User: Fold this.
Amino acid sequence: MTPQDRATRVRQMGARHDWWALRREPALEPELEVVDAHFHLWAARDFPDPASPGAMLRTSRYLLDDFLADARGAGHRVTQAVYVECGSGYYTDGPEHLRCVGETAWAAEQAAQSGDADGRETISAIVAHADLRHPDLDKLLDAHAAAADGRLRSIRQSAARLENPADRLLAGAAPPGLYADPALRQGLAKVAERGLVFDAFLFHFQLEELGELARAVPGATIVINHLGAPVGYNGGPAKSNQAESDPVFTAWCASIDRLAELPNLVMKLGGLASIVTQYDAHTRPLPPSSQDFVAERGAYFHHAIQRFGPERCLFESNFPVDSVAISYGVLWNAYKVIAAEYSTSSKQAVLAGTARRVYGLPQN
Assistant:
C-alpha cells in the first residue's frame, strides 16, 4: 500500500455509508441471536503510521452510536458484543505500562451507555491490552479489572508482524518472535490463573509460533483472532480443493489442522474482509453481496469450523476495520449463509453460544 492508500483506507473505516447503500440486503433469519465477538471503537484522531516512522494517519470516527447504528440498524438480532482493545482512550500521563488502563475505563463507560430498550448492555465484555512481559503485570491486571467494573474477560497482545513496512496498516509492527519470549509465557500463565482468556493476533505464516505458545501454557484459553489472518487473495472464488491454485490457502490449512489438535485454542471467525489480507472488495464499484463474500472467502470459514468444531468457533465483525470492504448487515448475512451448512445447534454455537461461553457473557 502506498502512503496515500493507507491514509484513505483508515479514513474510510466505518464511514462508507454511500458505498454500502449500493448493496442492501434484508437480514437473513432475523430472529437468530448473534453475539459479535470482536469490534472496536475510536474517536477521529491521528496515530503513528506503522509503515512510515514519523508519519501520522488520521482515523475515521467510529463511536458507540456508530456501532449501535450498524448492530441494530441492519436487521440482525445482535444481543451482545465484545469490545476489543485498539488504542483508544489511553491515559496521557502516569506510568507508561499503565496508560492502556485508560482504554478499559473508557470502554466500560461505553458499555454502561449501550443498554437496549430493556436496559441490557450490548457491550458485555472487554478485551484489554497488556504487555505480558512487564515485571509489574499483576498491578496492571488489577487495574484493568477495577476499570472494567466486572466486564474484563480477556487480554490481548498482538504478535502480528509484516516484514515489509509498506504492507502494514493498523498493525504488523510487533517485535519478531514475541510469543516465544519466556517473559511473555510467564505472563500468560498469570492471565490464565486469573480465569482470563488471551486473544492472539498474528498472521498465517506465524501460526506455528502460536502453536508453540499454546503447548507451553496449556492452561491458557487462547482465542485466535481473524482466522489466523491469512495474507494473500487470489482474486477469485475460494475452493476447498484449491491446493494447487492458492498456496496461501494450502499453507494456512496445514497450520490450522495442526492447531486444531490443541484443545486450549479457540478460533474467531472473521477479519477476512480486511484489506491487510489483500482482499480487494474495497476497490470495486459495488460492495460484495453476502453470496459474493461466501464464494470468495467461505472456504476458510468452513475449513476452520470443520477442524475446530462449532464449540470452538465464534463469529466476529471486526468492525470498523472490515467495513472498508463490506457493510455490517451483508457481512452477518454471509456468516448466516456459512452457518446454515451445519446443524441447528452448531449454527447457534458459532453465531452466539461459543462466544458467550468463552467470554463468560451474562445470559440475556
